[in-house]
# Entry
Amino acid sequence: MAHNLESLLDKMWKDYVAINPLAQKVYNLFTTRGDSVLNDHIALRTFNHPRVTVDVIAKPFLDAGYKYSGDYHFTEKKLYAKHYEHKDSTKPKIFISELRLELCSKELQTTVNSLIAQIPQGQETQFDFSSMGRPWKVTKETYQSLMKESDYAGWVAAFGYRPNHFTVFINALKSFSNITELNSFLKGQGVQLNSSGGEIKGTPEVFLEQSSTLANNVEVEFSDGKLTVPACYYEFAKRYALPNGQLYQGFVAASADKIFESTSKGQ
Ligand code: NI
# Structure
């Protein structure tokens, strides 16, 4: 069990690459070139149910020295998100989004409430809750009905509390001068990128460019059997300096609406 930030981040990475071995492979491709890999951010997903809001999920990170640093609305996906930064800038930013249940159907709300009701009382406040995985039982049918309305809700139902993605900070990769070069290298290595909305989301003008792999498919054990479903992706972020000379540390809502589609069915 993870009790401090270092061990929590380490546990999250190990769990993430166990589900998404491609991330470890890509990581190794970078280190083989002599690059050192820094994480730009780790993305976590939840619902705005009072027991598991962004603020509840963020609490252990705040206790470990993170500070609230910005919030975002993703209207198309019905999401609200906040990001947190650590004073040690080599620590990844933590990006936590929540599905706004009041904007979803009554059926979805009832289903999600019944999942959350299964979380043992108080477990959501444990330090390493965001690396515990799925704290409820869910059937294939429930997963599939959630997916029809919101692939985000389906993902959280199937995978629970664990990173949805890690993100490589491109600026720290000395062997790539830009994101296009990085994307070409990855494609040359047979890595498929998410091209929904174009391979590169964002522009230097909005101070952030991102690309990502497609989510891999994994077999998940539901309470009534197994199903192969989209899991996690690996993301790449290039940041640009603001007019004051500081690198932009925020996120761009318009780009992320597209990035969220990396875990949609059928891509
Ligand atoms: Ni991201």
Notes: The two ends are 35 Å apart (CA to CA). The first strand starts at residue 39 and ends at 47. The mean pLDDT is 93.
